[in-house]
Amino acid sequence: MKAAVLVEPGRFELRETARPDPGPGEVMIKVDRAGICGTDIHIFNGRYAAENLPMIPGHEVTGRVDGWGAGVTGFSEGRRVVLDPNIGCGLCYWCLRNEILNCPDMRQIGITMDGGFAEYVAAPARLVIPAPDETPAETLVLAEPLACVVRAARKARATFGQSVAIIGAGPIGNLHAQLMRTIGAAPIIVSDIGADRRDKALACGADIAASPEELPEAVFRATDGRGADIVIESVGRPELYAQALGLMRKGGHLAVFGLADAGESLNIDILRTILEENSLKGSVAGMGPDMRDALTLLVHGRVDASPFTGADYPLSDIQDAFDSLPGRPGDLKTQIVM
Ligand SMILES: [Zn+2]
Ligand SMILES: [Zn+2]
Question: Rounded distance, CA 171 to CA 87, Å?
């Protein structure tokens, strides 16, 4: 099969590789599309999972069932599916609580092992989730990133009527904005350095889009001077996390979401955190019910995929796709088409 192997940071090689064999309990997916995620960009730049190279990245996968291994039931050939890339042992303390990232045997398709920038990928059947045929593949690619956002919203106990500040209007920040809009959060204030991204944020349901410099004033003005109930850092920069802490209302919640580099830290005022009853919650991957709920939101149009489509590259141009990120003005989410 054709596969894009990241041989070293910054360099893909298109290779003819052996098709994976679906082992017992595994389903083979013939990949239609795979999205490029912030995590993939970190891997490409050598800032994350570098010890796993050479490797085929790609964990935002949709495709069709193309066979399965021993013991798999309930699948049909050609069925459209999406992939939950987080593989836990299924038996440990953490797996039983759906905290799969904490499983000592955790593996992630496309991050710690070969993934979906290839014609085929095999995965445990329980992580291969059937999707309706009527929903376009370019929409289904968003199931995995949306699942991450769904989980963060759950962890933040987001509900209607809450004010939300979102730092970063990239694909993930704008999915956060859409989900918050769907939940009924208000007002939603989004910041980004790019004017085109701020326009995307408004199209994705933000009430206010601001530059990073304008953000504090915008948040306090929109919340009667209190600060936001929920602040979501969706970029991964220490200085933006520091800004995020200052945007929370007393008793507010910071969703620690944007991937920082390993070892980077944040100064937290202990006494203030105690007295104000502030909370911080780390979360970055959707798993278990998060994936299924994300799929439901996409299938029923509660999250609109159209702002995230249109930036397609064929697998053969994957090097170009990564080299030209973040893409043309107006592009939000690059998708690789097999
Ligand atoms: Zn992702
Ligand atoms: Zn486990």
Answer: 24
